[in-house]
Specification:
The chain is mostly helical. The chain has a single domain, classed as 434 Repressor (Amino-terminal Domain) (Orthogonal Bundle). Helix content is 54%, strand content 0%. The N and C termini lie far apart (45 Å).
């Protein structure tokens, strides 16, 4: 009986190298996406952040599940992660208590 090979995420340094080859500096890329620093790319390389993962994957010419298979379900949806900007924007101005009550 053979073991099924587990899909592996791309190495963060490989992702950064590919991004630099295709888009210049990490800072210029993140600024072109509407963020103020390159920290968003570094964060997305270490922890799930579907919005930024989608932008990184698009720059690489891939689907996010190809770059981070451990972070995505077989249907291509994120397993978990930061809420999207749209979801966070609808929650602005609400207290933690209001958010808990709404959930």
């Amino acid at each position: 009986m053979t073991k099924r090979a587990r899909a592996r995420d791309m190495h963060p340094e490989d992702i950064k190298a590919e991004l630099r080859k295709r888009g210049g500096s990490l800072k210029s890329l993140s600024e072109s996406w509407g963020y103020r620093s390159r920290a968003v790319i570094s964060i997305a390389l270490r922890q799930p952040w579907p919005d930024v993962e989608a932008k990184i994957a698009e720059t690489l010419g891939k689907h996010p599940a190809e770059v981070w298979p451990d972070r995505y379900n077989p249907d291509g949806t994120p397993k978990k992660g930061r809420p999207s900007k749209a979801n966070r924007n609808t929650q602005k101005g609400q207290s933690n208590m209001q958010l808990r009550e709404a959930a």
